[in-house]
Amino acid sequence: MPFLADDIRDKFHKFTASEDCSADWEPLISIGTAAGHVGLSVSALRKYETEGLLLFHRTASGHRLLSRADIERIRVIQRLINELGLNMEGIRRLLALLPCWQLRPCTDEEKNNCEAARDTVHPCWMVRRSECKRLGVDCRTCRVYRYGAYCTEFMKSLLFNVESQAGGETTAS
């Protein structure tokens, strides 16, 4: 039984196909400039990285760079914190619910060998021994990382589908 309903998976794929513009992912903005654009401190952006909410591009000398798409991701995170009342732990756990193995999609063998499929606390890009990393996939280029934070509005329907498939009762809110 698939974890992710076909209509939700289709919605994710349509969203990511329409939003993908490689120029938006070009690392051009220093962490200091990015902090100014979003009204946060550099240390706050570093905290986002530590918490697994943001992956920085790194120069050969280790300096952090962000893209225009990263700036938008930061704004989504800020919305989740300021408007929806989530903290960083809550956002990270919400992103950990994304079934990356179905959104990529992975084979059953890849899923069975992947720690990200079993980790309920960290999103797949934070799991050190994920099957994607073993295969050499750069998480920054993966649509699960790039667009997962934008899909929080349909997480409730995803969870409803899982509970319905399991035969559990749900209540309308």
Describe the model:
There is one protein chain. By secondary structure, the protein is mainly α. It is built from 10 helices and 3 strands. 49% of the residues lie in helices and 4% in strands. The two termini are 26 Å apart. The protein has a 3-stranded antiparallel β-sheet.
Write the layout of secondary structure elements.
Blueprint: H1 6-19, E1 29-30, H2 31-38, H3 42-50, E2 57-58, E3 64-66, H4 68-82, H5 88-96, H6 100-103, H7 108-112, H8 131-134, H9 143-148, H10 155-165
Antiparallel strand pairs: 1-3, 2-3
For the largest beta-sheet, the strand count, sense and barrel status come to:
3 strands, antiparallel
Number of helices: 10
Structural class: mainly alpha
Give the strand order of the largest sheet, numbering strands 1, 2, ... along the chain: 1-3-2
The backbone outline, from C-alpha atoms, is globular
Question: What is the gyration radius calculated from CA atoms?
Answer: 17 Å
Feature tags:
173 residues, mainly alpha, three-stranded antiparallel beta sheet, globular, disordered N terminus, disordered C terminus
Briefly summarize what is shown.
This protein has 173 residues and is mainly alpha-helical. The chain has helices at 6-19, 31-38, 42-50, 68-82, 88-96, 100-103, 108-112, 131-134, 143-148, 155-165; strands at residues 29-30, 57-58, 64-66.
